[in-house]
Amino acid sequence: MSNLLAGKKGIIFGALDQQSIAWKVAERCVQEGAQIVLTNAPVAMRMGEINKLAEQCNAPVFPADATSIEDLENLLRKSMEHFGGKVDFVLHSIGMSVNVRKSKSYTDLNYEWMQKTFDVSAISFHKLMQTMWKLDAITDWGSIIALTYIAAQRVFPDYSEMAESKALLESFARSFGYHYGTAKNVRVNTVSQSPTMTTAGKGVKGFTDFYGYADKMSPLGNAPAEDCANYCVALFSDLTRYVTMQNLYHDGGFSTMGMNPALLQVEEGE
Ligand code: NAI
Hints:
Blueprint: E1 9-13, H1 21-31, E2 35-39, H2 42-45, H3 49-57, H4 69-83, E3 87-92, H5 98-101, H6 111-135, E4 138-148, H7 162-184, E5 187-193, H8 199-202, H9 207-217, H10 225-236, E6 247-250
Parallel strand pairs: 1-2, 1-3, 3-4, 4-5, 5-6
Helix pairs in contact: 1-3, 1-10, 4-6, 6-7
């Protein structure tokens, strides 16, 4: 343990339970000396798990539906009041597809549900940054990260409309990264994480088989959530001040592979 985030203040979205990637990020940020605020959708509060993390991290929990501007304003105001100033970093770790949840096939999607999916999984990121912008809520040289998945670039059929959500999310990071970089030297990046056993991950059909496939395809194996947290800490720290508008793969090498012999199950002699 070092002190990479000493004196920094951040907001972490999306810690639902101990499996959540955001949960690990919150723990690591605090270990590195940061002060944090935790937030999640009001419905997610009902599980009550987040309160355990809050206690452990000595952090307040301010509920906010990330699709509601009013909730986001409230969250940011309360966070700045709590910190006595602006925030230095933010993690957007939010994803949900209505069509996937309701097992709709990609060739029979419900468009109202699709709008909801885009709103929760991608537009919420723009809403968050725009609200921060208007409230002047982030310090100069601050750092914003959203978590994404390689289905934005390649086809993973069971990921359905989440693929387009992630493409939109990554594009918002680039476009807002321009404005925030120019105005305040704030960096905006997306981290494209390996398949990870979480509530959102396991919601995708065939996830367990796919998890094994990605693990074998990647020379380093799937990147664990704890290591994703380490990567996020590095990106929140002052060691990465000129990294912005990037989609950064944290995937054990998966994104560069074409074929891995480890996946060929050819018996000897065949
Ligand atoms: P998770 O299920 O633990 O986290 C998703 C979070 O989104 C939950 O905390 C949920 O309450 C929150 N959320 C949903 N609707 C919301 C709303 N309206 N307002 C505020 N929060 C809302 O799962 P996980 O895997 O930790 O997901 C975090 C991020 O990582 C997501 O963006 C996901 O797409 C991404 N990711 C996950 C991978 C995986 O295999 N698990 C792989 C690559 C990226």
